[in-house]
Amino acid sequence: MGSKNTLVTADFPGVTVDWLKKKYDCPVVYVSGAVGGLMAPPDNRIKDDAGGIMGDGSFEYTRRLGEETARLASQAIETATPIQLTPLDAAVKQIALPVDNKIYRLARQAGVLKREGRVWTGDPDKLGEVIDDKKPAGDVAMVTEVSCLRLGELTIFNVPGELYPELVYGTFQEPVDPAADFPETALEPTVVSLAPSGKWMFVGLACDEVGYIIPKRQWDEAPPYCYGRAKSQYGEVNSCGPETAPILMKSLADCARQLQGKR
Predict the structure, then answer these.
(1) 238 close to 179: Cβ distance less than 8 angstroms
(2) How many structural domains is the chain composed of?
(3) Domain endpoint, select from 56, 78, 100
(4) CA distance 262 to 113
(5) Mind listing the pLDDT tens digit for each residue in 158-167?
(6) Dihedral, CA of residue 120, residue 253, residue 259 and residue 148, to nearest 10
(7) What are the pLDDT digits (tens) for 57-72?
């Protein structure tokens, strides 16, 4: 419906779900994937009946985008092969995540983000004490979680935010842009590297929303900026901080190893 829409609407996922419900006569669940790479509707792709290019911001555009998405899902269903979905097992890890984003911290103190703050201990596995907002605090953290679900041959990875696709598929920019803030940082574990059977799904925005999850090696908040930009990038403005991806992906790897140990 576009960035200027002020109506409450299910947008294109609502159309996608309704289309698939009618076709397959069964319940349909829509989940977000790796939406951290500014995954936006395709430009110059959605057309009207006369073949003209449509722009977003209308219910007709939304309907056509939702139906096209549903047809892609249907193609996947029609070419799918059965897999074993038992036994069932799960691994969950609760962790502390440092909040370096000053806007997030101010919004929490102002009550806009209604979230409990914790003292950052320097160790994501050690949850600090709850912060009293009436008293000055040092480094702030919040509690979140990652998890893995095993359904037989299928592993489902769950991350609480908007993950950059690089952290799913393992294809990173090479060479690193020299203006990046941490160009020498080691790469995080990726989802594909954690899937034991090669059969996996990824769920973003799972259980929680912590903002963008950006590979630390690509973090670009301090000048000079990557790609010759005049200001910091959108993802960094809407992320808890540069340690978000390393902490979350390591914790996800811990969950995957826990499932492997039970196998």
Answers:
(1) no
(2) 2
(3) 78
(4) 38
(5) 999 999 999 9
(6) 70
(7) 899 999 999 999 999 9
**Residues 192 and 114 grouped into a single domain:** yes
Q: Considering only CA atoms, which of 113, 33, 115 is closest in space to residue 76? A: 33
- Judge if 114 and 150 occupy the same domain: yes
Q: Is the separation of the CB atoms in 236 and 181 below 8 Å?
A: no
N-to-C CA span, the chain: 45
Does 153 lie in the same domain as 66?
A: no
**Residue 72 has what DSSP assignment?**
H
CA–CA separation, 231 vs 229, rounded Å? 6
User: Rounded to an integer, what distance in angstroms lies between the CA atom of residue 221 and that of residue 234?
Assistant: 10
- Domain extent at residue 180: 88-262
Name all contacts of 233-238 with Cβ < 8 Å and 24+ positions apart: 234/38, 235/36, 235/38, 235/164, 236/212, 237/101, 237/103, 238/211, 238/212
Task: Please give the structure tokens belonging to residue 146.
Answer: 């990652």
Q: Give the CA count within 13 Å in the CB-facing half-sphere of 158.
A: 18
Examine residue 3 and state whether it is found in any structural domain, yes or no: no
> Is 244 found in the same domain as 165?
yes
In the numeric block, which tokens belong to residue 14? 């609502």
- What is the value of pTM for the model shown? 0.91
Decide if pLDDT at 147 tops 90.
Answer: yes
Regarding whether 97 and 74 lie in a shared domain, the answer is no
Distance of alpha carbon 194 from alpha carbon 212, whole angstroms: 21
> How many other C-beta atoms are found inside a 10 Å radius of the C-beta of residue 135?
6
Number of neighbours of residue 113 by Cβ within 10 angstroms: 15
- In this structure, the answer to whether residues 147 and 28 fall within a common structural domain is no
**Same domain for 72 and 180?**
no
